[in-house]
Amino acid sequence: MSPAPVPLPTDAFDPWLPSFVADPYPAYAELRSHGRALYFDRSDQWLVPHYEDVRALLRDRRLGRTYLHRFSHEEFGRPAPPPAHEPFTTLNGHGLLDLEAPDHTRIRRLVSMAFTPRTVERLAPTVTRLAEDLVERFVADGGGDLVASVAEPLPVAVIAEMLGVPEADRALLRPWSSAIVGMFELNPGEEAARRAVEASVEFSAYLRGLIEERRRSPGDDLITALTIAHDDEDRLTEQEMISTCVLLLNAGHEATVNTTSNGWLTLFRHPAELARLRAAPEALLPTAVEELLRFDTPLQMFERWVLDDIEVGGTVIPRGSEVALLFGSAHRDPARFDRPDLLDLGRPENPHLAFGAGIHYCLGAPLARLELGASFGALLRRAPELRLTEEPEWNEGYVIRGPRELRVEV
């Protein structure tokens, strides 16, 4: 049973307010000053704002992304999803991100066989070429919207290349992804659910056809590898394959897009650090990418269910509750990071949580770093005077957070 609603000791946390989405960091500082676990009645969640608590709970097996491996909805005190949401529920429920052991263990082991460092290394020339081509066209046009012209198309092209999606079909992927991840926001409405269900049906049907095509005619791509991935006869089901492919696009793509756009906006707002990066891009870029992931992380919140009672800072959070781990707040926690509100592109120690931790640590982290390094590097080389022309408006989403567009000149 959920805890009795207790108002937060501050009204600063309002993830539906545009001004909050534009800059949540002052509210995070206030949350951290009030406690380690704060109940938020508007989303029926316990907010966890401190780094060490977030890090520990990511690894705590008393929490899970799902509870259905142990409880029914009724036993857990939570309503079953509406029948009308079933296509989305099925698609989301069979992906790695929302599974726990033993299914998570089995699928991650099989997917890892096809998603190795060698795969990423083999992709490096392709990623570099795609980034250079996009930036070259962007510079030739004199700039424009960095989100639409560089940040979005690069990860879509890369994951499509990995999966073996024909180039003619790639324009379908971004709208499907955007509609599906809309359900990861706080309290999504029925219109968001309708779009997500429609996209789930269409994306699943498309991938089912592509999987069948690869069975008839194997290729050198991830979908082909997943069709033959096995371990002691322990195979992926077709639904698990479809859900895995969708997750690879959604998780990797959405995070990379927003890290790119958030990152450049951060650089424009810190001209001294941008000048420092431009002066020594090759030397500074690796630590710069990690600092941009920390400073304005694309995933602000990661939710988990409490499977057994836990205690955080003297507060008991009962089974059946949901915790909201605030990555954005954790990354600005002065108890873990020296001068956390200071952007330091050469920060020597940077144990950020942008890729998660524990069993749900992002499989695609090496690929994301490769894409970010390639796109930032290409823009630093080819557009050394890149500048912001207008302040951006932010997308409505808070959980996955980024500007709607980023207008720049070269």
Question: What would a concise description of this structure say?
Answer:
By secondary structure, the protein is an alpha+beta fold.
Descriptive account of the structure:
The protein is α+β, with helices and mostly antiparallel strands. The protein has helices at residues 18-22, 25-34, 51-59, 73-76, 86-93, 103-114, 117-140, 146-151, 153-163, 173-181, 190-216, 222-228, 238-268, 271-279, 281-295, 327-330, 365-382; strands spanning 38-40, 45-48, 63-64, 143-145, 230-231, 234-235, 301-306, 310-312, 315-317, 322-326, 387-388, 407-409. The chain has one domain (18-409): Cytochrome p450, CATH 1.10.630. It is 51% helix and 9% strand. The model has no long low-confidence stretch (mean pLDDT 92).
Secondary structure layout plus pairing:
Elements: H1 18-22, H2 25-34, E1 38-40, E2 45-48, H3 51-59, E3 63-64, H4 73-76, H5 86-93, H6 103-114, H7 117-140, E4 143-145, H8 146-151, H9 153-163, H10 173-181, H11 190-216, H12 222-228, E5 230-231, E6 234-235, H13 238-268, H14 271-279, H15 281-295, E7 301-306, E8 310-312, E9 315-317, E10 322-326, H16 327-330, H17 365-382, E11 387-388, E12 407-409
Helix pairs in contact: 5-11, 5-13, 7-9, 7-17, 9-13, 10-11, 10-13, 11-13, 13-15, 13-17, 14-15, 15-17
